[in-house]
Amino acid sequence: MGHYQPAADTVMISITLDDPGVPDYAIDLVMYHELLHKKMGAQQINGRRYAHTETFREEERKFRYYAEARAFLDKLGAELHRR
User: How large is the average pLDDT for residues 46-68?
Assistant: First the structure.
């Protein structure tokens, strides 16, 4: 639902989230997630890039409304996938 561009130091958010039915906490989680990428970067192990490490996921779960936002985004993703 978003991505971080290190070269431009920019966070992009999917237009899918530009809808009055999307709760603020869901957008905030996407922003939080992408800014964690900025903060934590990625690890290179045996030539492979890892961005969603266990440490990253631990930090992500510290978001105040993580469970609610994750549930909403997972449901939204499933609905989009069915289209």
Answer: 95
